[in-house]
Write a structure and sequence with these properties.
The protein is of the alpha+beta class and 151 residues long. The protein has two domains: 80 residues, AF2212/PG0164-like (Elongation Factor Tu (Ef-tu), domain 3), CATH 2.40.30.100; 58 residues, no CATH class. Helices cover 38% and strands 27% of the residues. The chain contains six helices and eight strands; from the N terminus they run βββαββββαβαααα. Strands 1-8-4-5 form a four-stranded antiparallel sheet, with no helix packed on it. Helix 3 packs parallel to helix 6 and helix 4 packs across helix 6. It is elongated, with a radius of gyration of 18 Å. The two termini are 28 Å apart.
Length: 151
């Protein structure tokens, strides 16, 4: 997935602040319920979910993160963001096909934080026999359809 690079101004919002995104992550990275990203703001590493107010996406920045990285509200910053964790385009074709066949499971998988996506994929990739792998994929899809984050 291609990282997005842009300049922006940190907008104050009470004790918190945010960076409005000049792009729609659903269009750039694919539609999903929640976008978890990794990247940097002025070279300071960050990771976490994007928020939305219904019409625009933004990157929230808490007061302690800004303090620790020497950034203030109203500062102009350089931002680099990319989707975090396992993405469908990088998964095995059998996993991708199973998720594509079940849109509800796919949507829930894409909305999960990286930790949970990695655990599902790690479990599947550790299978030694093809039938074990297929069974684990089917189990993952069933759990995702039920809205469960893990086994």
């Amino acid at each position: 997935m291609n990282p997005q690079r842009f300049k922006a101004t940190i907008v104050p919002s009470g004790a918190r602040a945010f960076i409005p995104l000049p792009f729609d992550p659903n269009e750039v990275w694919g539609a999903r319920e929640r976008h978890h990203v990794t990247g940097s703001v002025n070279g300071c590493a960050l990771r976490g979910p994007l928020d939305s107010n219904g019409s625009q996406y933004f990157l929230p920045l808490g007061p302690s993160w800004r303090r620790d990285n020497g950034l203030e509200a109203s500062d102009e910053v350089e931002v680099v963001l990319a989707p975090e964790g396992p993405q469908l385009g990088r998964l095995g074709t059998d996993i991708t096909a199973a998720l594509e066949a079940e849109p509800q499971a796919k949507s829930f998988f894409e909305s999960l934080p990286t930790f949970y996506r990695k655990n599902f994929i790690r479990d599947i990739e550790s299978a030694k026999r093809p039938e074990t792998r297929a069974r684990r994929i089917a189990e993952m899809v069933a759990l995702l359809k039920e809205g469960k984050r893990q086994r």
